[in-house]
Amino acid sequence: MLRPFSAKGPGISIALSAQDARTIPQPLLDSILAQERLPDEFVICVDELGPMGREKLQNFQDRAGFPVHIHRNGNKLGQAGSTLKALSLCKREVIVGADCWDLWLPDKLQTIEQAFLESPKTALILFNATLADGAGESLGGTVWEEALFDRQARYRFARDPLAAVLKHHICRVPCMAFRADHLRWILPVPLGWNVRVGLGSCFAPCSPLPSWPDHCLFAVWTVAPSPCVSVNPSPK
């Protein structure tokens, strides 16, 4: 059962993890500060928090008009473990994943909030992303194109979401937002599971929303075709 949002709408948490705070790019932090709808909290979990990384995050904390919670992991958790910890520490109604290779467009959080308000039964939003280089310039493709997740695949997804997650590799933490009510089913991810599969398997089945047929938005899964974040591909 999804709890109703307050009259003010959903509170939004951002969850970000990194092995070393120094590697969190300044353009990502700046793009979060430039959101038209600011987050209600930002949770950052890192394995390493040396003097340079601490200074970077403290400077960001000083500039932010919202709470920023910085956690250094007691034991090295690695990227996957740190991501799960960041998700578990979020306290708001909607959790938005972030990644160190992201560069957010200004209307990302506003778009996510509006989608949840228009479809209160939606539990999860998956969204597309433009692939970009290190300078933020488009490489001419998207995450969905790379994953072969075309319009036909999106409608098949409505019937069998988990199969689509396994086949098309679209359930990526930096390309999703979900209701925090579902954390009790997501965590802990069973030992040996891929984090994406662990997250994706908790959201099914789904049904199309008749008011958004061309956009393929769903009452439990919501798939937003318009890119709202640029992703810098990780180096090989």
List the helices and strands and how they pair.
Elements: E1 12-20, H1 26-33, E2 41-48, H2 51-63, E3 68-72, H3 78-89, E4 94-97, E5 102-104, H4 108-118, E6 124-127, E7 130-132, E8 138-142, H5 143-146, H6 151-159, H7 161-168, E9 176-179, H8 183-186, H9 195-200, E10 221-224, E11 229-231
Parallel strand pairs: 1-2, 1-4, 2-3, 6-10, 7-11
Antiparallel strand pairs: 4-9, 5-11, 6-9, 7-8
Helix pairs in contact: 6-7
What do you see in this structure?
The protein has 236 residues and is α/β, with parallel strands linked by helices. The protein has one domain: Alpha-Beta Complex (Spore Coat Polysaccharide Biosynthesis Protein SpsA, Chain A), CATH 3.90.550. It is 32% helix and 22% strand. The strands form two sheets. It has a seven-stranded mixed sheet with strand order 3-2-1-4-9-6-10, with helices on both faces. It has a four-stranded mixed sheet with strand order 5-11-7-8. α6 crosses α7. It is globular. The N and C termini lie far apart (42 Å). 37% of the residues are buried.
Structural descriptors:
alpha/beta, 9 helices, 236 residues, seven-stranded mixed beta sheet, four-stranded mixed beta sheet, 11 strands
